[in-house]
Write a structure and sequence with these properties.
Chain lengths: 255, 295
Amino acid sequence: MIVFRNVTVRYDGKVEALSRVNLTIPDGEFVFLVGSTGSGKSTLMKLLYRELLPTEGSVYVGDDDVTQLEAKHIPLLRRRLGVVFQDFRLLPYKNAVENVSYALQVIGAEPRDIHQRALSALGRVGLAHRATSMPGQLSGGEQQRVSIARALVNDPTVLLADEPTGNLDPETSLDVIHLLESINESGTTVIVATHDREIVNLLAKRVVELDSGRVARDAVGGYDRQGDDHFDAPREEEISEPAADEQGAGDATED
Amino acid sequence: MLQRTEFLLGELLTNLRRNGLLTLAAVITVMCSLVVFGLFNLANTNLQNILLEEARKAQISAFLAKDLKAEETDKLEKAIRALPEVRDVAYVSSKEAFERLRKELDSPVLDSLGGEADGRLPAKFSVTPRDSKAIDAVAKQLKGMAGVTDVSYGGQVVRLLNDLLKQVRLAGYVALILLALATCAIISNAIRLTIYARRREIRIMQLVGATDWFIRVPFMLEGLFHGLVGGLLAVVVTFALYRHMAHVAESLLPFLRLVKPETLLWSYTLGLSALGAVIGIGSSLISMRQFLKEA
Ligand SMILES: Nc1ncnc2c1ncn2[C@@H]1O[C@H](COP(=O)(O)OP(=O)(O)OP(=O)(O)O)[C@@H](O)[C@H]1O
Ligand SMILES: [Mg+2]
């Protein structure tokens, strides 16, 4: 379970990237995180893998309040999480399976198992046949799959994807999202930050919308395709804590 | 374990190859610094040796009055022996004094003087102090004794050497500190460049949960490499220079006995490479600390 409790993030003591965010994500859920640029999506993600400490509030991943984590325990937190980015972040001089292996090598995994585990992670993303291809020889979608395999190889309980389809064409994007969906179906909690309305609308998943650092909406269902920033799809099912919702709704009407 | 070591060594080689020229610069800087330090140290060792030799030789000549009777001479000897800071006393007769002088000077002029010179030199006591530092005090006491006309000793030489030794030692330490700082600056800059070149790898390592120590190891190895290789090269250069300088010095000053290079080689190999290793690892930790803090 992931819980944000009254989380506020102020960069440099000024820019308020998140304002009193309350959010609960049960284990095994699939959540889209949406909102216009600068609304705080990446900031929220960074809190989870302790790239960032909130100015106020607590963030729980499982039983741990990650804001209270000692520096030396941060690596252990990150081993329970998989993180995927828009720009893939593969090492260009390593082939697909080496890129995936790298994630195991640097956490001191048993060397004998590394190659096999990396291959099977590539298998999960449907790239077993491209194991020895270099990133430069792979399409954008394939590179993103390799980066997802790298995030998966250590069997994380949570997969965080920050705009994983940002560099991909619509068709490839859909493939990647379906891959994330199938990973979710095998029990991993998946959180996807995205701008891609079409994809969000296509999948009936929980959608958390951020607006200027506040939770503006938290419901199952997609965007309305007419408005750009406005959002008026029906609330089918309230999921998060009532307090968070009230606050989000109140703020949304202010704009 | 073997495979893990292999992985780390692979990372090290990649790092070294990535900034080849800077690796070279770092290694050469370490080498130069340690050569300078090594030469200072050799100078120090030799001066100390010479000083010890001189101090061991340091004797006071107490010249006796010509008309001193045998029993008075015996009494004087007992009195000198009783001084707490005196280790040894030897009587040198006028004849012996002349013989010694003749041997030392090896001059036909003295030979031509023959027996005539006999008796012109006063008899004396050669007094050896327990500690070369006490030489002044002992000389003063001897001068005050009845039957002693004059006192002479090589105190100046010892004092001069002592002062020189202090200066050399001080200069050596100051040089070591300054050079170590300069070396640290250059190595940590080289490693900062490596870190910059490998920031992608470091970011990935951090994201997938590598510990800070694991991330540091390849960079520490790189610093260690700079330090060790620089240190070993420094040993080679230092001893090549020393051998040459010792040769020149000994042919100019035949009485000079310098410490043989062979006897110092191992301790210097150990000392200089250890010093290089410490400087190398220290510098890499400094630059890593900055980076891991920023990240
Ligand atoms: N390191 C930082 N220092 C200062 N301000 C920052 C920093 N990172 C983000 N911000 C600000 O915080 C706010 C939220 O940024 P964030 O990156 O979380 O938005 P986002 O929703 O991910 O945007 P995008 O969709 O463009 O990725 C923005 O106003 C941004 O300018
Ligand atoms: Mg973002």
